[in-house]
Amino acid sequence: MNLLSIGASYRTADVAVLERLAIPEPTLPDLLQKLIAQPYVGEAVVVSTCNRVEVYAAVSGFHGGLGDICNVLSEHSGIPASELAGHLYVHYGEAAVRHSFRVSSGLDSMVVGEAQILGQLRDSYHAATEVDSAGRLLHELMQQALRVGKRAHAETGIDKAGQSVVTAALDVAAGHLGGDLTNTSALVIGAGAMGALSVATLTRTGVGPLRITNRSGERADRLAEAYGAVAVPFEDLTTVLGEVDIVVSATASTEPVLTGDRLRAALAARTSPAPLVVLDLAVPRDVAPEAATLPGLVVVDIDGLAESRRALPAAAETAAVEQIVTAEVENFLGWLRGAEIAPTVAALRTRADEVVSGEMRKLLSRRPEFTEEQRADVSRTLHRVVQQLLHSPTVRVRQLAAEPGGDQYAALLRELFDLDVPLATQANAVPEIGGKP
Predict the structure, then answer these.
(1) pLDDT at residue 431 greater than cutoff 70
(2) Which residues of 132-141 are buried (b: 16+ CB within 10 A; e: fewer)?
(3) What's the predicted TM-score (pTM) here?
(4) Is residue 214's pLDDT more than 90?
(5) pLDDT score of 404
Protein backbone atom coordinates (compact mmCIF):
# COMPACT_ATOMS: atom_id res chain seq x y z
CA MET A 1 0.00 0.00 0.00
CA ASN A 2 1.12 3.54 -0.62
CA LEU A 3 0.10 6.92 0.73
CA LEU A 4 -2.03 9.21 -1.41
CA SER A 5 -3.45 12.59 -0.39
CA ILE A 6 -6.02 14.43 -2.48
CA GLY A 7 -7.70 17.69 -1.56
CA ALA A 8 -8.90 21.16 -2.32
CA SER A 9 -8.14 24.23 -0.25
CA TYR A 10 -8.33 28.01 -0.35
CA ARG A 11 -5.26 27.81 -2.61
CA THR A 12 -7.05 25.86 -5.36
CA ALA A 13 -10.77 26.50 -4.92
CA ASP A 14 -13.11 29.32 -3.99
CA VAL A 15 -15.75 29.10 -1.27
CA ALA A 16 -18.42 28.05 -3.76
CA VAL A 17 -16.47 24.85 -4.49
CA LEU A 18 -15.32 24.28 -0.91
CA GLU A 19 -18.84 24.54 0.48
CA ARG A 20 -20.02 21.86 -1.96
CA LEU A 21 -17.10 19.65 -0.99
CA ALA A 22 -17.52 20.29 2.76
CA ILE A 23 -18.41 17.19 4.73
CA PRO A 24 -20.79 17.78 7.66
CA GLU A 25 -19.82 15.85 10.77
CA PRO A 26 -22.92 13.58 10.76
CA THR A 27 -22.15 12.36 7.22
CA LEU A 28 -18.42 11.78 7.77
CA PRO A 29 -18.67 8.13 8.95
CA ASP A 30 -20.66 7.13 5.86
CA LEU A 31 -18.18 8.88 3.56
CA LEU A 32 -15.24 7.11 5.23
CA GLN A 33 -16.96 3.76 4.81
CA LYS A 34 -17.67 4.54 1.18
CA LEU A 35 -14.00 5.39 0.60
CA ILE A 36 -12.60 2.18 2.07
CA ALA A 37 -15.19 0.17 0.13
CA GLN A 38 -13.51 1.28 -3.12
CA PRO A 39 -11.34 -1.33 -4.90
CA TYR A 40 -8.02 0.52 -4.57
CA VAL A 41 -8.50 2.20 -1.16
CA GLY A 42 -7.50 0.30 1.97
CA GLU A 43 -7.47 3.12 4.56
CA ALA A 44 -8.88 6.64 4.71
CA VAL A 45 -8.87 9.76 6.89
CA VAL A 46 -10.86 12.83 5.82
CA VAL A 47 -10.11 16.39 6.98
CA SER A 48 -12.88 18.94 6.38
CA THR A 49 -12.40 22.49 7.68
CA CYS A 50 -13.55 25.96 6.70
CA ASN A 51 -10.81 26.26 4.10
CA ARG A 52 -9.79 22.73 3.10
CA VAL A 53 -11.19 19.28 2.35
CA GLU A 54 -8.56 16.54 2.13
CA VAL A 55 -8.52 12.77 1.89
CA TYR A 56 -5.50 10.83 3.15
CA ALA A 57 -5.59 7.25 1.92
CA ALA A 58 -3.56 4.06 1.74
CA VAL A 59 -4.00 2.81 -1.82
CA SER A 60 -2.84 -0.25 -3.74
CA GLY A 61 -2.25 1.75 -6.92
CA PHE A 62 -1.86 5.41 -7.81
CA HIS A 63 -4.22 5.74 -10.75
CA GLY A 64 -6.82 3.40 -9.30
CA GLY A 65 -6.75 5.13 -5.92
CA LEU A 66 -6.93 8.56 -7.54
CA GLY A 67 -9.95 7.54 -9.58
CA ASP A 68 -11.73 5.94 -6.63
CA ILE A 69 -11.31 8.97 -4.36
CA CYS A 70 -12.22 11.49 -7.06
CA ASN A 71 -15.38 9.56 -7.85
CA VAL A 72 -16.45 9.51 -4.19
CA LEU A 73 -15.78 13.25 -3.82
CA SER A 74 -17.60 13.96 -7.06
CA GLU A 75 -20.64 11.98 -5.96
CA HIS A 76 -20.65 13.67 -2.55
CA SER A 77 -20.30 17.22 -3.88
CA GLY A 78 -22.34 16.90 -7.03
CA ILE A 79 -19.43 18.37 -9.00
CA PRO A 80 -18.55 16.38 -12.15
CA ALA A 81 -15.22 14.62 -11.80
CA SER A 82 -13.83 16.41 -14.87
CA GLU A 83 -14.65 19.79 -13.32
CA LEU A 84 -13.56 18.81 -9.82
CA ALA A 85 -10.13 17.72 -11.05
CA GLY A 86 -9.21 21.33 -11.80
CA HIS A 87 -9.55 22.23 -8.11
CA LEU A 88 -7.69 19.27 -6.61
CA TYR A 89 -4.06 18.84 -5.62
CA VAL A 90 -2.54 15.38 -5.41
CA HIS A 91 0.44 14.18 -3.37
CA TYR A 92 1.83 10.66 -3.58
CA GLY A 93 4.34 8.72 -1.51
CA GLU A 94 6.99 10.94 0.08
CA ALA A 95 5.22 14.09 -1.15
CA ALA A 96 2.06 13.06 0.72
CA VAL A 97 4.03 12.61 3.94
CA ARG A 98 5.58 16.05 3.53
CA HIS A 99 2.21 17.66 2.77
CA SER A 100 0.61 16.17 5.89
CA PHE A 101 3.43 17.48 8.09
CA ARG A 102 3.26 20.95 6.51
CA VAL A 103 -0.47 21.01 7.15
CA SER A 104 -0.10 19.96 10.78
CA SER A 105 2.59 22.56 11.46
CA GLY A 106 0.49 25.39 10.01
CA LEU A 107 2.72 26.05 6.99
CA ASP A 108 -0.13 25.35 4.58
CA SER A 109 -2.76 27.31 6.51
CA MET A 110 -4.40 30.51 5.32
CA VAL A 111 -2.94 32.18 8.40
CA VAL A 112 0.52 30.63 8.49
CA GLY A 113 1.28 29.12 11.86
CA GLU A 114 -2.29 28.94 13.17
CA ALA A 115 -2.68 26.16 15.73
CA GLN A 116 -6.34 25.36 15.16
CA ILE A 117 -5.48 22.85 12.44
CA LEU A 118 -3.97 20.54 15.06
CA GLY A 119 -7.33 20.13 16.77
CA GLN A 120 -9.03 19.64 13.43
CA LEU A 121 -6.55 16.94 12.42
CA ARG A 122 -7.01 15.23 15.77
CA ASP A 123 -10.79 15.23 15.38
CA SER A 124 -10.49 13.84 11.84
CA TYR A 125 -8.17 11.08 13.02
CA HIS A 126 -10.50 10.16 15.86
CA ALA A 127 -13.46 10.03 13.47
CA ALA A 128 -11.54 7.60 11.24
CA THR A 129 -10.54 5.51 14.25
CA GLU A 130 -14.15 5.21 15.39
CA VAL A 131 -15.25 3.66 12.10
CA ASP A 132 -12.01 1.68 11.71
CA SER A 133 -11.06 3.31 8.41
CA ALA A 134 -7.48 4.05 9.51
CA GLY A 135 -5.00 1.17 9.42
CA ARG A 136 -1.35 0.85 10.25
CA LEU A 137 -0.09 3.40 7.71
CA LEU A 138 -2.57 6.17 8.54
CA HIS A 139 -2.39 5.55 12.28
CA GLU A 140 1.35 6.16 12.11
CA LEU A 141 1.02 9.11 9.73
CA MET A 142 -1.62 10.92 11.79
CA GLN A 143 0.17 10.36 15.09
CA GLN A 144 3.42 11.63 13.63
CA ALA A 145 1.71 14.60 11.95
CA LEU A 146 0.20 15.66 15.28
CA ARG A 147 3.60 15.31 16.95
CA VAL A 148 5.28 17.38 14.20
CA GLY A 149 2.68 20.12 14.61
CA LYS A 150 3.22 20.28 18.35
CA ARG A 151 6.98 20.36 17.88
CA ALA A 152 6.75 23.21 15.34
CA HIS A 153 4.78 25.37 17.76
CA ALA A 154 6.93 24.45 20.77
CA GLU A 155 10.33 24.99 19.13
CA THR A 156 9.72 27.97 16.82
CA GLY A 157 7.81 31.24 16.78
CA ILE A 158 5.64 30.18 13.84
CA ASP A 159 2.42 31.05 15.68
CA LYS A 160 3.41 34.54 16.84
CA ALA A 161 1.96 36.30 13.80
CA GLY A 162 -1.55 34.92 14.09
CA GLN A 163 -3.28 32.23 16.10
CA SER A 164 -6.16 31.45 13.76
CA VAL A 165 -8.36 32.45 10.88
CA VAL A 166 -10.40 34.43 13.44
CA THR A 167 -7.54 36.79 14.23
CA ALA A 168 -6.97 37.43 10.53
CA ALA A 169 -10.69 38.13 10.05
CA LEU A 170 -10.68 40.57 12.97
CA ASP A 171 -7.72 42.39 11.43
CA VAL A 172 -9.84 42.93 8.31
CA ALA A 173 -12.81 44.03 10.43
CA ALA A 174 -10.66 46.56 12.26
CA GLY A 175 -9.79 48.18 8.94
CA HIS A 176 -13.47 48.87 8.35
CA LEU A 177 -14.14 50.14 11.89
CA GLY A 178 -11.40 52.66 12.47
CA GLY A 179 -8.63 50.27 13.46
CA ASP A 180 -9.54 49.76 17.13
CA LEU A 181 -12.03 47.06 18.13
CA THR A 182 -11.88 47.71 21.87
CA ASN A 183 -15.39 48.07 23.29
CA THR A 184 -16.91 47.27 19.90
CA SER A 185 -20.14 45.30 20.27
CA ALA A 186 -20.13 41.86 18.70
CA LEU A 187 -22.30 38.82 18.08
CA VAL A 188 -21.10 35.27 17.51
CA ILE A 189 -23.50 32.95 15.70
CA GLY A 190 -22.69 29.31 16.39
CA ALA A 191 -21.37 27.55 19.48
CA GLY A 192 -19.29 24.83 17.86
CA ALA A 193 -15.49 24.65 17.68
CA MET A 194 -15.11 27.69 15.43
CA GLY A 195 -17.71 29.63 17.40
CA ALA A 196 -15.93 28.90 20.66
CA LEU A 197 -12.60 29.95 19.16
CA SER A 198 -14.22 33.16 17.93
CA VAL A 199 -15.59 33.96 21.39
CA ALA A 200 -12.19 33.34 22.98
CA THR A 201 -10.40 35.51 20.41
CA LEU A 202 -12.93 38.34 20.64
CA THR A 203 -12.69 38.34 24.43
CA ARG A 204 -8.89 38.42 24.31
CA THR A 205 -9.02 41.30 21.81
CA GLY A 206 -11.14 43.40 24.14
CA VAL A 207 -14.30 43.36 22.04
CA GLY A 208 -17.47 43.85 24.04
CA PRO A 209 -20.25 43.72 24.92
CA LEU A 210 -20.28 40.24 23.40
CA ARG A 211 -23.38 38.20 22.65
CA ILE A 212 -23.72 34.58 21.51
CA THR A 213 -26.58 32.80 19.79
CA ASN A 214 -27.03 29.25 18.63
CA ARG A 215 -29.92 27.04 17.57
CA SER A 216 -29.19 24.98 20.67
CA GLY A 217 -29.67 27.50 23.45
CA GLU A 218 -28.00 25.24 25.99
CA ARG A 219 -24.67 25.30 24.16
CA ALA A 220 -24.84 29.07 23.79
CA ASP A 221 -25.55 29.39 27.53
CA ARG A 222 -22.51 27.30 28.46
CA LEU A 223 -20.19 29.20 26.13
CA ALA A 224 -21.48 32.59 27.29
CA GLU A 225 -21.02 31.63 30.94
CA ALA A 226 -17.44 30.52 30.32
CA TYR A 227 -16.46 33.90 28.83
CA GLY A 228 -18.71 36.35 30.62
CA ALA A 229 -20.78 36.97 27.48
CA VAL A 230 -24.56 37.09 27.06
CA ALA A 231 -26.52 34.32 25.38
CA VAL A 232 -29.49 35.44 23.30
CA PRO A 233 -32.28 33.27 21.84
CA PHE A 234 -31.83 32.33 18.21
CA GLU A 235 -35.32 33.68 17.54
CA ASP A 236 -34.02 37.18 18.41
CA LEU A 237 -31.20 37.00 15.82
CA THR A 238 -32.61 39.68 13.49
CA THR A 239 -33.08 42.14 16.36
CA VAL A 240 -29.59 41.60 17.75
CA LEU A 241 -28.03 41.99 14.29
CA GLY A 242 -29.28 45.56 14.26
CA GLU A 243 -27.60 46.35 17.57
CA VAL A 244 -24.00 45.19 17.06
CA ASP A 245 -20.95 46.33 15.07
CA ILE A 246 -19.33 42.96 14.29
CA VAL A 247 -20.89 39.58 13.56
CA VAL A 248 -18.86 36.39 13.45
CA SER A 249 -20.92 33.63 11.89
CA ALA A 250 -19.57 30.09 12.13
CA THR A 251 -22.43 27.62 12.05
CA ALA A 252 -22.61 24.14 10.56
CA SER A 253 -25.82 24.97 8.70
CA THR A 254 -26.10 23.72 5.13
CA GLU A 255 -28.29 26.73 4.25
CA PRO A 256 -27.55 30.46 4.72
CA VAL A 257 -28.39 31.66 8.22
CA LEU A 258 -28.06 35.34 7.29
CA THR A 259 -30.55 35.66 4.49
CA GLY A 260 -31.16 38.79 2.45
CA ASP A 261 -34.45 39.53 4.22
CA ARG A 262 -32.93 39.10 7.66
CA LEU A 263 -29.97 41.36 6.91
CA ARG A 264 -32.12 44.04 5.25
CA ALA A 265 -34.34 44.17 8.35
CA ALA A 266 -31.29 44.40 10.63
CA LEU A 267 -29.70 47.17 8.56
CA ALA A 268 -32.94 49.16 8.53
CA ALA A 269 -33.00 49.06 12.34
CA ARG A 270 -29.40 50.22 12.81
CA THR A 271 -28.67 53.68 14.19
CA SER A 272 -24.87 53.55 13.96
CA PRO A 273 -23.29 55.26 10.93
CA ALA A 274 -20.59 52.56 10.81
CA PRO A 275 -21.15 49.55 8.55
CA LEU A 276 -22.23 46.21 9.95
CA VAL A 277 -19.19 43.95 9.48
CA VAL A 278 -19.99 40.26 9.09
CA LEU A 279 -17.14 37.76 9.25
CA ASP A 280 -18.50 34.66 7.54
CA LEU A 281 -16.18 31.84 8.64
CA ALA A 282 -18.56 29.03 7.77
CA VAL A 283 -18.28 26.55 4.93
CA PRO A 284 -20.91 26.34 3.46
CA ARG A 285 -21.33 30.12 3.79
CA ASP A 286 -23.73 31.54 6.35
CA VAL A 287 -24.38 34.75 4.38
CA ALA A 288 -26.64 34.40 1.36
CA PRO A 289 -24.63 35.43 -1.75
CA GLU A 290 -27.25 37.92 -2.89
CA ALA A 291 -27.06 39.75 0.47
CA ALA A 292 -23.33 40.42 0.37
CA THR A 293 -23.68 43.68 -1.59
CA LEU A 294 -26.36 45.32 0.56
CA PRO A 295 -25.59 48.99 1.39
CA GLY A 296 -24.16 49.41 4.89
CA LEU A 297 -22.97 45.80 5.02
CA VAL A 298 -19.37 44.52 4.78
CA VAL A 299 -18.99 40.77 4.38
CA VAL A 300 -15.60 39.12 4.82
CA ASP A 301 -15.57 35.41 3.94
CA ILE A 302 -12.91 32.77 3.40
CA ASP A 303 -12.27 33.99 -0.14
CA GLY A 304 -11.61 37.51 1.12
CA LEU A 305 -9.22 36.26 3.78
CA ALA A 306 -7.34 34.16 1.25
CA GLU A 307 -6.79 37.28 -0.84
CA SER A 308 -5.60 39.37 2.12
CA ARG A 309 -3.31 36.65 3.58
CA ARG A 310 -2.67 38.75 6.66
CA ALA A 311 -0.26 38.12 9.51
CA LEU A 312 2.51 36.23 7.76
CA PRO A 313 5.32 35.18 10.11
CA ALA A 314 8.96 36.03 9.50
CA ALA A 315 10.87 34.04 6.93
CA ALA A 316 13.24 32.78 9.63
CA GLU A 317 10.34 31.16 11.51
CA THR A 318 8.92 29.42 8.46
CA ALA A 319 12.42 28.26 7.50
CA ALA A 320 12.88 26.76 10.98
CA VAL A 321 9.60 24.85 10.66
CA GLU A 322 10.51 23.67 7.16
CA GLN A 323 13.71 22.22 8.61
CA ILE A 324 11.70 20.37 11.26
CA VAL A 325 9.35 19.05 8.59
CA THR A 326 12.23 17.87 6.40
CA ALA A 327 13.86 16.01 9.29
CA GLU A 328 10.59 14.45 10.39
CA VAL A 329 9.74 13.35 6.85
CA GLU A 330 13.05 11.50 6.67
CA ASN A 331 12.37 9.89 10.06
CA PHE A 332 8.98 8.73 8.84
CA LEU A 333 10.44 7.36 5.62
CA GLY A 334 13.05 5.53 7.69
CA TRP A 335 10.24 3.92 9.69
CA LEU A 336 8.55 2.86 6.47
CA ARG A 337 11.74 1.43 5.02
CA GLY A 338 12.41 -0.43 8.24
CA ALA A 339 8.86 -1.73 8.29
CA GLU A 340 9.20 -3.00 4.74
CA ILE A 341 11.71 -5.63 5.73
CA ALA A 342 9.65 -6.98 8.65
CA PRO A 343 7.72 -9.65 6.64
CA THR A 344 10.98 -10.81 5.04
CA VAL A 345 12.75 -11.12 8.42
CA ALA A 346 9.71 -12.99 9.76
CA ALA A 347 9.85 -15.34 6.76
CA LEU A 348 13.57 -15.94 7.38
CA ARG A 349 12.95 -16.87 11.00
CA THR A 350 10.08 -19.13 9.96
CA ARG A 351 12.38 -20.86 7.46
CA ALA A 352 14.97 -21.36 10.23
CA ASP A 353 12.33 -22.87 12.53
CA GLU A 354 11.25 -25.22 9.77
CA VAL A 355 14.85 -26.36 9.22
CA VAL A 356 15.34 -26.98 12.97
CA SER A 357 12.05 -28.89 13.20
CA GLY A 358 12.98 -31.02 10.19
CA GLU A 359 16.40 -31.88 11.59
CA MET A 360 14.87 -32.71 14.98
CA ARG A 361 12.48 -35.18 13.35
CA LYS A 362 15.37 -36.86 11.56
CA LEU A 363 17.43 -37.04 14.76
CA LEU A 364 14.61 -38.48 16.85
CA SER A 365 13.80 -41.08 14.21
CA ARG A 366 17.41 -42.30 14.51
CA ARG A 367 17.54 -42.02 18.34
CA PRO A 368 14.22 -43.32 19.65
CA GLU A 369 15.81 -44.00 23.07
CA PHE A 370 15.91 -40.25 23.88
CA THR A 371 13.73 -39.33 26.83
CA GLU A 372 11.26 -36.42 26.61
CA GLU A 373 13.64 -34.33 28.69
CA GLN A 374 16.54 -35.09 26.37
CA ARG A 375 14.46 -34.29 23.32
CA ALA A 376 13.44 -30.94 24.83
CA ASP A 377 17.09 -30.12 25.69
CA VAL A 378 18.28 -30.85 22.15
CA SER A 379 15.40 -28.86 20.61
CA ARG A 380 16.08 -25.82 22.83
CA THR A 381 19.80 -25.97 22.04
CA LEU A 382 19.24 -26.07 18.30
CA HIS A 383 16.77 -23.18 18.45
CA ARG A 384 19.14 -21.09 20.58
CA VAL A 385 22.01 -21.65 18.14
CA VAL A 386 19.89 -20.63 15.17
CA GLN A 387 18.46 -17.58 16.94
CA GLN A 388 21.92 -16.43 18.00
CA LEU A 389 23.21 -16.83 14.45
CA LEU A 390 20.28 -14.84 13.06
CA HIS A 391 20.19 -12.13 15.71
CA SER A 392 23.02 -9.85 14.55
CA PRO A 393 22.27 -10.10 10.81
CA THR A 394 18.56 -9.38 11.27
CA VAL A 395 19.20 -6.46 13.59
CA ARG A 396 21.74 -5.04 11.16
CA VAL A 397 19.54 -5.53 8.11
CA ARG A 398 16.72 -3.65 9.86
CA GLN A 399 19.12 -0.78 10.50
CA LEU A 400 20.35 -0.75 6.91
CA ALA A 401 16.81 -0.95 5.56
CA ALA A 402 15.85 2.21 7.48
CA GLU A 403 18.52 4.23 5.68
CA PRO A 404 18.02 5.92 2.30
CA GLY A 405 18.08 3.29 -0.43
CA GLY A 406 17.39 0.60 2.14
CA ASP A 407 14.39 -0.78 0.29
CA GLN A 408 16.77 -3.06 -1.67
CA TYR A 409 17.68 -5.13 1.39
CA ALA A 410 14.33 -6.90 1.66
CA ALA A 411 14.54 -8.04 -1.95
CA LEU A 412 18.17 -9.10 -1.49
CA LEU A 413 17.34 -11.14 1.60
CA ARG A 414 14.49 -12.90 -0.20
CA GLU A 415 16.82 -13.73 -3.09
CA LEU A 416 19.69 -15.01 -0.92
CA PHE A 417 17.54 -17.34 1.18
CA ASP A 418 14.96 -18.14 -1.51
CA LEU A 419 12.16 -16.84 0.71
CA ASP A 420 8.57 -16.84 -0.41
CA VAL A 421 6.89 -13.71 0.99
CA PRO A 422 3.38 -13.28 -0.49
CA LEU A 423 2.85 -9.96 -2.23
CA ALA A 424 -0.30 -9.34 -0.19
CA THR A 425 1.72 -9.67 3.03
CA GLN A 426 4.33 -7.25 1.75
CA ALA A 427 1.72 -4.72 0.61
CA ASN A 428 -0.32 -4.83 3.82
CA ALA A 429 2.56 -4.82 6.25
CA VAL A 430 4.85 -2.48 4.43
CA PRO A 431 3.78 0.61 2.49
CA GLU A 432 5.95 1.61 -0.44
CA ILE A 433 7.35 5.12 -0.49
CA GLY A 434 8.68 7.37 -3.15
CA GLY A 435 7.08 5.44 -6.01
CA LYS A 436 6.31 7.10 -9.31
CA PRO A 437 2.69 7.53 -10.36
Answers:
(1) no
(2) ebbbbbbebb
(3) 0.65
(4) yes
(5) 66
Per-residue confidence (pLDDT) for residue 423, from 0 to 100: 52
Nearest Cα neighbor of 197 from 237, 232, 227, 228 is 227
State the catalytic residues.
Answer: 50
pLDDT tens figures, 305-332:
766 654 445 567 788 889 999 999 988 8
Laid out side by side, the sheet with 89-92 consists of 41-49, 52-59, 2-9, 89-92
**More confident position, 44 or 429:** 44
Predicted pLDDT of residue 430: 42
Report yes or no: 112 and 161 within 8 Å, Cβ to Cβ: yes
